[in-house]
Structures are given as structure tokens and as C-alpha cells.
């Protein structure tokens, strides 16, 4: 039992920091979301699978999963683990007893008050269900994460395809339906009503695969309008399920947010007169001439609403001088090139 609880905590502690463990006469359960509210984990350990289980009334115990994992590391894999909490107590006692019963250790951990809402997850009919070796699924997620950040999972009658794309290239892995293997845990089974293709973040899937030591096979249930469910069955004791919302594909997202520009980015506050037409006159004879003018500075002519000109001169030191209208009547700009622009 000590080994099992260690594996359960290792499968959840990187995804969820604090969570409420609900103890009822029927079993030991947990439901919690990650900090970004993108993934949800659901755990169930049935009461009849424990060697001894007693719960007089339903209670909720708030715990930090990393602290609980530290406590369980003090237990041997073959130790008998006992968890005890008195009614109304603010602490949980861990008792570890070795198989020869000549060593008993107990640790006490403070409980936490955690406000959390228990989400009712309805049973749903999924369009595609894939059962495959848990070790193989973990390896695929690990390999693809070295190429890209997301994975496109596509399910068809022939098999399931995992695809990713990154800066260094692309990768595609196909697992074909295979039910004729000698070992049932190595089979790849697909139940499909219609093809499904969804994209998910690999960092979450890699976190889910930490439950691989708990089960030989993993079940991936997908529908186009529902979060994916990645389930690991813990022998006959229960299960641990992960729910993950799909990502919007980059092409669809780009199409949704990109709009053609119908107006210029900058417009003048005052409307121009009817006889003034927007124009930009800049015709350097060569690229070298253009570059030399940029180095020397440029003069931009801007006409105001009375059709009088005000010149603004920009130089290399980013110092601008504005000549008054009276100076314009007597002085002429000495720059060899003038760029004229009327703003709307």
C-alpha cells in the first residue's frame, strides 16, 4: 500500500499543489484543477480495496500534495500505511509499519482550509476511444516534446496519429490498431463513431504520464466539443483521470484575430480641405542618394488648415527645430531634398 500511495501522489503533485481529499464510507477521492484552470484531475480509491477502511462520516481534508509526498517518502514500499484523522482535528497522522512488524513510525501533518468547489462531471458519449500501452503513450509524449510544444491527436479506424511541429522540424507517430498481440496490455484498441482531431499542450500530457506506473494501459477518450479524458485504471481499486481542454489551432486563431486594415494607422485631428489630396513625394534617384539623405536628415512639409506651411526638420541627434511662419516667409530651407506630405 505504501508503494501505491507514493505513485498516486507522484502522479498529481506537479499538476496540483493544494487539494481536498474527501473521505466517505464508499472510498477515498480527490478532485482538483491546476492553477491555470486548463486541466482537472480526479482520483478514486474504493473502500473495499483497502485492507482496513473505516469512515464514520464524510469529511474533507485539505492537504498540500508536495508535503504529503514528503511524508510518504519516509515509508518503505512494502510498509503497511495507516492514515488517521480524528473528527474535527486539524492534523493527519501517517503510521508506517514494516512487514515484520518490528518497526513502527508515525508522522503528523497539519491540515489546510481549502475553498474548492466540487465539479459534477457528467458521463458523456465520446466520438473516439483509444486504449493503448501506457508506457508507449508516455514515450510518444516525451519524444514529441523535444520537437514541438503541442501535439495533434487524430483518430481514425486504422489507428491514432500523433503529430507535432517545431522550429527544428516536424514529427508524426502512428499507432495502428492491433488486437492480436499475445499480451493484452500491449494491444492498441480503437472504438470510433467518427474521426476526431484535436490539439493539446504537450507539457500537460507529459504531466499526466507520471501516472504510468499505476496502470499497464491508458484510455484516451476524445470528442470535438469536450475535453479529452486520459484515464489510468488502478487495478481493481479505482482510477485516476485527467481532463484537458484542447487548444485552438494556430491557423484558426490567426484567421479569427486578423482583420484587413481599411483605415490608415494615424490620422490628423483636423479634416483637410477639399483641394488638398494626400500625397507623399520622395523620389531619390538611387538607393545611395536615399541613404545619404537619411544620414543628413530630412525636411517634412506639413500644411495646416489655412494652407500655410510649417517645416519640421529632423537631424541625426534627434533634435527637432520648428520654424515659425514668419521665418518661412523670409528663409528658405537649405536642405537639398524635401519630402512633402499632407496629412489627412
Automatic annotation (TrEMBL):
The keyword Nucleus applies. Gene3D superfamilies: 3.70.10.10. Residues 120-247 form the Proliferating cell nuclear antigen PCNA C-terminal domain. It holds the Pfam family PCNA_C. Residues 2-118 form the Proliferating cell nuclear antigen PCNA N-terminal domain. Residues 260-308, 315-344 have a biased composition (Basic and acidic residues). InterPro entries: DNA_clamp_sf, Pr_cel_nuc_antig, Pr_cel_nuc_antig_C, Pr_cel_nuc_antig_CS, Pr_cel_nuc_antig_N. Its main location: nucleus. It is found in: Nucleus. Keywords: DNA replication, DNA-binding, Nucleus. Residues 254-344 are annotated as: Disordered. It comes from the Eukaryota. Belongs to the PCNA family. This protein is an auxiliary protein of DNA polymerase delta and is involved in the control of eukaryotic DNA replication by increasing the polymerase's processivity during elongation of the leading strand. This is DNA sliding clamp PCNA.
